[in-house]
Design a protein that fits this description.
The structure is a single chain. The protein is of the alpha+beta class. It is 15% helix and 35% strand.
Length: 772
């Protein structure tokens, strides 16, 4: 009989779905939490500060040995200390009458003057000057006595004029006018159709920053004004405000709504004070983006996109007459790749470089800036995705740019550096080390600093010439403290998507005391995109929450999925169009299954998933779509109902259709009524499917993804009689701010309980007792 009871007890324990053998290691998780582990790594990138009209630059870099200041002369191939830290600290101590840490000189407002000789910095509101040649520090004037620039003022390029807004109108004044005479340029500004950046401002007679932008020659300004007067209002409440909770009201257009912001482009002549409202109308509910042509003010450019985000015009404006000319139209179904869409104005608008995805891969094209005629394709190196333009050499007629997916056997997410001639010839790879690269180039385009890293590659910085040749290695991140603490690199992996064809890439985080004979619950950190996927391509000591989470005793993975990223081809990027809720889910599930097939230590009986914002949306959707696969989901600030998220995001990535209906008015005249259809599938619709454990959290002052998104899920779960956890984050915006650490620890307890069966009774969020 006793054996029978023991068997029953054993079966009951096994039926829980997890082993009680291993408790969550909260102590290790705390050690490698973001706020703690960041102290173990110092500088990871060289940010060059180029000398005026020179290829020389200076930079600072910190290791465990301290912070140093360097000067680099690429032509001479030299890298020298700017000064001796001890001597610098000694001089500064004499001048300021206080001690200085020579190993970590904390100098504010560092700036190299145009003479390329004087380094200025500030200590206690006093300017100091260091002479690079004599190595002597001199004390300057108190900055408190100097005239301060007001935060409401937008100065013209030569600081002759100031533009600002008051009572929602646009004003002008001379910067050196002792009487501060205000010149009012407009009278039609009003709340929500304002010349002020803060369109909802309710203060009166106070100056504020204007939406105006100056032309380089100071003769004109332009304003891109948005009319939101008819747009619906949304609000959040600051429950923690004193002495009474306060309501915050803002305009917020939602998908499919009739009343959305209407844009107006206006020019102002400084001398005549005249305003020209440009005739830019073409598409209903269009959006525009203005561009200056260069140093002159005789022309400007703008792009104009329709509401369905699939047709875009590049236009030129004659600023003297106000004439608008459409140069060319680009059509891109289902929507334009806004992450990489670029228009570069060359030689005062004589030529244009335009980024287009017309072939299915983003490429650069050269256009005539006067006629709009296509001259040629610039990037002729194959089928790959061109990313951000890094530098344009108009004299040498070359463009330097990042690109992804061109080189064999290199992760397609890594940005590599290339160059090409304007005419499409001379395509050349510059930086192709298998890592993610960032370029910072000198104005002469002769040299650049190449910073690169990967999730499993330590950050490194090199100086290279414009042919990609290495001149010298500048720095490598100091891993001393991390290695001493037991830090280990994550692992990259590749799996197939649910279609069995498409390659997906990801990063795996293991506990640093990993034991291959154990079984580990697996947790997927997710973000659906489509502008970025959940895993980074650069070195990270935290991986967001992932490094610390893994130390609890989990395998944490983060991978891409079809529809997740603009860094790959157009088909991959737009896979989720018209299926915003569900497109990423099957790939996440299938990826986890493949990893478990490869690794016996992954426990697919205990699967967690978590994410923030879009990841909060996706993690809940996964738990409710595959309730027999996912065990627990922690979903923070999720846009669970994209029908109440912002218009642009939801309509662009899920689609919106114009519906025109003919009607007759009371006089019998036929009119056309236009409406928009943009219905999106939601998580509340799936609430009845819940079987596992769900933690919902949301900032109560989130004015990006409104708290109503999570509340709607909670409402439907309650109607369906489901148990779940819901935690409002008091007073927090979208990112949770100072309560981020609290939420991180909340997730630790949640997953420890539901994936490891480790329930703790402590009230404090600190590391619980019994964890040694």
């Amino acid at each position: 009989m006793r054996k029978f009871y023991l068997l029953i007890l054993l079966l009951a324990t096994c039926s829980l779905g997890f082993s009680q053998e291993h408790k969550a290691d909260f102590k290790a998780a705390e050690k490698f939490k973001s706020s703690n582990i960041r102290k173990m790594l110092k500088s990871t990138r060289v940010s060059p500060r180029w000398f005026e009209d020179s290829d020389k630059f200076w930079y600072t870099y910190t290791t465990t040995s301290g912070k140093n200041f360097y000067i680099v002369d690429p032509a001479k191939k030299t890298r020298t200390l700017m000064f001796d830290n001890k001597d610098f600290a000694a001089q500064l101590s004499e001048l300021t009458r206080k001690p200085w840490n020579f190993n970590d000189l904390d100098l504010k407002a560092l700036e190299l003057e145009e003479d390329n000789r004087t380094l200025t910095f500030m200590v206690d509101s006093i300017d100091y000057h260091f002479d690079l040649n004599s190595k002597v520090i001199t004390k300057g004037d108190s900055t408190e006595k100097a005239e301060k620039r007001n935060n409401w003022a937008t100065y013209s390029p030569d600081s002759t004029y100031i533009s600002f807004a008051k009572n929602h109108n646009l004003y002008l004044m001379k910067a050196d006018d002792p009487d501060s005479t205000e010149i009012q340029l407009t009278e039609d500004g009003e709340r929500w159709f304002s010349y002020a950046w803060n369109q909802g401002d309710t203060t009166s007679d106070e100056r504020s920053r204007a939406r105006a932008r100056w032309f380089e020659d100071e003769s004109k300004m332009f304003v891109n004004r948005s009319d939101s007067r008819k747009v619906g209002e949304l609000f959040v409440i600051d429950e923690l405000a004193n002495p009474r909770p306060e309501i915050e009201i803002y305009k917020y257009a939602m998908p499919g709504e009739q009343e959305v912001p209407q844009e107006q482009l206006e020019l102002f002549d400084v001398e005549t004070r005249e305003r020209t409202i440009l005739d830019i109308a073409k598409y209903k509910d269009q959006t525009i983006s203005p561009y200056l042509a260069g140093d002159s003010s005789d022309k400007m450019f703008f792009t104009r996109m329709n509401r369905t985000s699939d047709s875009l015009d590049v236009c030129r404006v004659n600023t003297a007459t106000g004439e608008v000319k459409t140069l060319f139209t680009d059509v891109n179904h289902p929507y334009f790749n806004w992450s990489y869409q670029q228009l570069a104005i060359l030689n005062e608008g004589e030529e244009l470089i335009w980024w287009s995805e017309r072939t299915g891969w983003g490429q650069l094209y050269l256009y005539d800036g006067n006629t709009g005629a296509l001259k040629n394709k610039i990037t002729n190196g194959g089928h790959f995705v061109t990313g951000q333009i890094q530098q344009i050499d108009t004299v040498g007629r070359k463009v330097y740019f990042e690109a992804r997916g061109r080189e064999d056997n290199v992760d397609p997410y890594y940005a590599l550096m290339y160059k090409a001639n304007f005419d499409g010839s001379g395509f050349k790879a510059l930086s192709t080390e298998p890592a993610n690269h960032f370029m910072s180039m000198s104005e002469s385009a002769k040299y650049y600093v190449d910073n690169f890293s990967a999730p499993d590659v330590v950050p490194q910085s090199y100086l290279k010439d414009n042919e990609g040749n290495v001149i010298m290695k500048l720095e490598e991140a100091d891993m001393t403290l991390l290695n001493q603490a037991g830090f280990q690199m994550p692992e990259r992996f590749k799996v197939k998507a649910d279609d069995g064809i498409t390659d997906l890439y990801g990063v795996m985080y293991k506990p640093f005391d990993f034991d291959s004979t154990r079984k580990y619950p697996v947790i997927s950190y997710v973000y659906p995109g489509p502008q970025v996927e959940s895993f980074g391509n650069d070195f990270s000591i935290t991986g967001g929450y992932n490094v610390a989470m893994a130390q609890l005793g989990f395998i944490v993975v983060s991978m891409g999925h079809r529809g997740g990223s603009p860094m790959r081809d157009k088909y991959y990027h737009t896979f989720g169009y018209e299926n915003l809720r569900d497109y990423a889910l099957a790939d996440d599930k299938r990826s986890l299954e493949q990893l478990a097939e490869r690794h016996s230590w992954i426990d697919l009986d205990n699967v967690g998933i978590f994410g923030h914002s879009g990841g909060g949306f996706m993690s809940t959707a996964a738990l409710l779509t595959y309730p027999n696969f996912y065990t627990a989901a922690a979903s923070s600030a999720g846009n669970h109902d994209n029908n109440i998220y912002n218009k642009w995001w939801s309509e662009t990535h899920n689609g919106v259709k114009m519906v025109e209906k003919k009607k007759k008015d009371k006089d019998g005249n036929e009119t056309v009524e236009t409406t928009w259809n943009a219905k999106i599938k939601t998580n509340p619709d799936l609430a009845k499917n819940l079987k596992g454990h769900l933690l919902l959290t949301h900032g109560t002052r989130d004015n990006n993804v409104h708290p109503g998104n999570s509340i709607r899920v909670a409402s439907e779960l309650m109607k369906a009689g489901k148990r779940f956890d819901y935690m409002p984050i008091p007073g927090s915006r979208h990112g949770y701010g100072r309560l981020r650490d609290y939420y991180e620890q909340m997730m630790w307890y949640f997953f420890a309980e539901h994936l490891l069966g480790d329930y703790r009774s402590n009230v404090d969020m600190d590391v619980p007792d019994g964890n040694e």
